[in-house]
């Protein structure tokens, strides 16, 4: 329980907009999407669809040259003895090695302790008490854009925090989840911080560029100026769209009373007076500084096991295992705060909180099983490779003016991204075709990489093929049982489309003004 002073602000959500063609269209999108079967069954149905499509493409004899290997690749039929054998024997491995599964489970062990100790609620209440609901939107959006530095762990950490932040100012916690999700998912490539993904993008672009010029080297910092400015532009865009469009439909995001009550009462402990709480927060802050200092000291030696080959920091043990360090971080600060406030009494409380956290995401684990089997089937058929190569070849044959070609490239990659939602996988497939093609037209690899970032990001938030999309659906269902794919798409679609337009216009202005994309990386 909390004292009356600790309760969230009673702020009314914006009045529902019952009229307007745009609002009615989004209502239709929501109803149509939610009329689909439960996502668990939807992915098994999609498995059947992919199996039939793969059989038809295999029968047609369609083949393309894999740009990464030079080998001819054709679509493999899922309706074959080899497919049945491989997919059945690999089902367990496909589930256990499914990317988000390990990250979600591990980070949740730490997050659960921090959440159930009352730390998140106390931080949100004190930090947001003087802010308006509109300012909170911008704060969550900025946090999501910058939080992509945490890789997949960002979703596990920031989506629940988005709910806490919105609940603290009297707005729908489900809308807070959506704002956090779309900020990470659709604007994450506009991160001013250099992350492991930037190093991967640069290395792939370098290999592709050296097919034309063996002296070209693309660096992880080559888009830094552009992504830094883009981060704040896109966070502001998200806040504006939420305020002008999504807020008018916030009444569609009313949690089920029993689920919201359970979420709001996860912290069940003795009342904490303001003096005790403030002291606990200050000492927890010192624990944060201590942990950060320890990590810095551990990373200082070039021979540190937390560094990578040759003393690398971006491609390092620390960055590649960020989920482990985040788990320890949240476990530490949750334990410190809980002990100081009396919400953690004895050693048994911590593992009990961790177990409660895992139980709370059980629906996600069930959904992940279906998603992992579908993605394994889709990858096995080679449909993704064929789609990417055919799309790149189509652009190459157009011979359009530069800005028109850029626009078509963005549209084509954005459409491919609806099917191939892994940014690194799609870049690996299309870069060997797009980078040399545009170099021959006078466009630098850094510019092609920036164009790809724009195209790759925005449509991630509207496709059920994205594992993070389905993760967010699962989170929404923890507050509203009937929330589904349509619920999420109807709220992310306006944001994604407007962000795409704004980001393209920003890039065109950047290109026409000739501003460098990064240190030593001219835009043209």
UniProtKB/TrEMBL annotation:
InterPro entries: AbgT (IPR004697)
Pfam family, one: ABG_transport
Region annotation Disordered: where it falls in the sequence: 1-22
GO BP terms in the entry: p-aminobenzoyl-glutamate transmembrane transport
Residues passing through the membrane, by range: 40-57, 95-114, 135-166, 224-242, 283-302, 322-340, 361-378, 398-419, 426-455, 461-479, 491-513
The entry's keywords: Membrane, Transmembrane, Transmembrane helix
Superkingdom assignment: Bacteria
UniProt-recorded Gene Ontology molecular function terms: secondary active p-aminobenzoyl-glutamate transmembrane transporter activity
PANTHER family the record matches: P-AMINOBENZOYL GLUTAMATE TRANSPORTER, P-AMINOBENZOYL-GLUTAMATE TRANSPORT PROTEIN
Protein name: Aminobenzoyl-glutamate transporter
Lineage: Bacteria, Bacillati, Actinomycetota, Actinomycetes, Kitasatosporales
